[in-house]
Design brief:
This protein has helices at 6-11, 40-45, 65-78, 89-100, 115-129, 141-147, 170-179, 228-234, 241-245, 251-258, 264-284, 300-306, 324-336, 367-372, 390-403; strands spanning 82-86, 106-110, 132-136, 152-158, 183-187, 204-208, 222-226, 289-290, 316-320, 342-343, 353-356, 379-383. The protein is of the alpha/beta class. Helix 3 (65-78) packs parallel to helix 10 (251-258) and helix 13 packs across helix 15 (390-403). It is globular. Bound molecules: pyridoxal-5'-phosphate.
Amino acid sequence: MKTFDPCAEMASVRHEFGEHGGVNMSIEASTTFTVMHADTMPEIFRGQFGPETGGCYLYGRHFNPTVFTLGRQLAAMEGAESGYCSSSGMSAIAGALLQICSHAEHIVASHTLYGGTYALLKDYLPRVTDIRTTFVDVSDPDKIEAAITTRTKVIYVESLANPTLVCADIPKLSQIAKKHGLMLVVDNTFTPMIFSPLKMGADVVVHSLTKYINGASDIIGGAILGSKEFISSLMDLHQGSLMLLGPTMDPEVAFRVHMRLPHLAIRMKEHSARAKFFAERLAQRGLDVIYPGLPGHRQFDLFSSLCHPEYGYGGIFALDAGTEERANQLMEHLQIQCNFGFIAVSLGYFETLMSCSGSSTSSELSDEEKRESGITPGLIRFSIGLTGDLEQRWQQMERGLRSVGM
Ligand SMILES: *Cc1c(COP(=O)(O)O)cnc(C)c1O
């Protein structure tokens, strides 16, 4: 029996009508809000009467109604008590981690992370805050346990690691986190709808809304989902990382993201179906393809046991072209001659995006770190789009492959 469906949960959030009865919600552009009684103001400043507790709005960098609605929808999708949005995925990640960790505390993180997150943890936080991170293979519980110290506060992972598509065993990680009194923070950017980390025991989910959730590669945004208490703490007027560092989401941006949520489930299903189709065809051709939806993938069973199956195995696969040179030739051919997609970083666009991970999104890693996490020089990450006819797209791909002798 179905217990939790992200799409149904999101649809259960009360519809927000526009101020003239419009079927779309209005954009609340005000940066400051009135109170009816002057004595309400001190209460809000003491953090006792904000919108998250049924009170009122104060100032645009604190809660904004339009941004708050988007936060509530994303919280529903993730099965969170509460949620709020920020100006980018990176600000959501940094905001969440800086809220949990104080000076000189410690994080245990996966050794395969988005390049920006990796640089934040490895270089920036140690320099500025003395918050240190130990990077481990999170599929090995012994390695995680061994890395935990008395200063550790967080276990940090991505639901599906970039670009090797290793999926995190969130229930197991949650057990370890609970045993040591740590928070498990999961970046679910690659797999909205597919995985519900909070339902598997994670404490906080972060998203880059720049990818699948927005779907058109035209908006940068982020979100943090978790307990009411945690989201309120981010907005604390004296100690809140979102409130005080100020990576605020603009209400017009929140509105635009909100308008794409109704078709997120449909898009995810289509991205997944197409990625699976390509991964299968490429594997049949004898090529070295990584996709968690292929029964030969070493985590096919784990992924299958954790995902909501109707949304598939995600829209991303990786193809090893052998060398960086051949990878580049293939991508150029697919972009210029075949019209198959674009050579660009990022993912979740309605068109196909291709990038050679080792020299782009994972270039923050040293050669040895890349080897350890399985990022080979010729590895191309494909974020499969959803336009065009599938057979037409396969013919384009085949032409590209033939042109580089693959
Ligand atoms: C893109 C991305 C981020 C960063 O998001 P921005 O919106 O670009 O700041 C973080 N994590 C993952 C997995 C990403 O793909």
